[in-house]
Design brief:
Blueprint (H helix, E strand, L loop, with lengths): L1 H5 L6 E2 L2 E2 H6 L17 H18 L10 H17 L12 H22 L1 H6 L11 H13 L1 H30 L4 H39 L2
Antiparallel strand pairs: 1-2
Helix pairs in contact: 3-4, 4-9, 5-8, 5-9, 8-9
Length: about 230
C-alpha cells in the first residue's frame, strides 16, 4: 500500500513509450497554424493576452537592463505551467515532483544571475554580503550567514516546488483511495470524501499555477538584485 502511493511519481508507459511524452505533445495542438496574419482566431488572441500578462507581471520588478531576460523567464513560466497542469491528468507523470529536474532548472539560472551581477557591478554584488553599519566584531559572522543564505537559494527554489507538488499529489492519492474504500462500507461518507477530493483538485490546479509563478518571480527578484 505504501509503495502504491509513490508509484504515481514514476512515469507510466504504454508499449514502452512514456505517457508524459504524449501528454506534452498536447499543448502543441493549441499552437496556431502558420498564416499571413499574426492573430488568426480567438484562441490566438487568448494566448497572446496570457503571454503578455505573464511577461508584464514578471518584468514589473526589473529595470530596463533586466528586460533582456524576458524571453527566458516567460518561456520558463510557460514550461513550468504546462508541466504542472499536465501532471494533474490521469495516467501522466509530473516531472517537477522530481528534485533533480527542479535543481537542474534553478541552479543554472541562479548562477547566471549571480555571475551577471559579479560581472557588471562586482562591488555592489559583494556589498550584499555585509550590510552597512555592521559592528566590527559581527562582520565575520554576518558574512558567513549572508554567504550561506545566498548559496542556499537554488536549493530553496527546487525544494519549494518539489515539496508543494508532491504533497498535493499524495493528498489527492490518499483521499481518492479512502473514497474508493468507503464506497461499499459507508456510501454517505464516501460521497462527502469525493466532494472534498473535487475541491482539493481545484486547489491543486491553483497550486500548480501559483508555484510556477513563484519559481520564476523569485528568479526575477534575484536578477534585480544583481543588475
Amino acid at each position: 500500500m505504501n509503495l502504491s502511493f509513490f508509484d504515481q511519481f514514476a512515469s507510466p508507459c504504454l508499449l514502452g513509450i512514456p505517457l508524459i511524452l504524449l501528454s506534452m505533445l498536447f499543448p502543441a495542438l493549441l499552437l496556431p497554424s502558420p498564416g499571413s496574419r499574426w492573430i488568426t482566431n480567438r484562441l490566438s488572441t487568448l494566448q497572446s493576452w496570457c503571454i503578455d500578462l505573464i511577461t508584464k507581471q514578471l518584468m514589473t520588478p526589473l529595470n530596463k537592463n533586466g528586460h533582456k531576460w524576458a524571453l527566458i523567464l516567460t518561456s520558463l513560466m510557460i514550461l513550468l505551467l504546462s508541466i504542472n497542469l499536465l501532471g494533474l491528468l490521469p495516467y501522466t507523470f509530473t516531472p517537477t515532483t522530481q528534485l533533480s529536474m527542479n535543481m537542474a532548472l534553478a541552479f543554472p539560472l541562479w548562477l547566471a544571475t549571480l555571475l551577471t551581477g559579479l560581472r557588471n557591478q562586482p562591488s555592489a554584488s559583494l556589498g550584499h554580503l555585509l550590510p552597512e553599519g555592521t559592528p566590527t566584531p559581527l562582520i565575520p559572522a554576518l558574512i558567513l550567514i549572508e554567504t550561506t543564505s545566498l548559496l542556499i537559494r537554488p536549493l530553496a527554489l527546487g525544494v519549494r516546488l518539489t515539496a508543494n507538488l508532491t504533497a498535493g499529489h499524495l493528498l489527492i492519492q490518499l483521499i481518492s483511495t479512502a473514497s474508493a474504500a468507503l464506497l461499499t462500507i459507508m456510501p454517505t461518507v464516501s460521497i462527502l470524501t469525493t466532494i472534498i477530493l473535487l475541491l482539493l483538485t481545484i486547489l491543486e490546479v491553483a497550486v500548480a499555477m501559483i508555484q510556477a509563478y513563484v519559481f520564476v518571480l523569485l528568479l526575477s527578484l534575484y536578477l534585480q538584485e544583481n543588475i
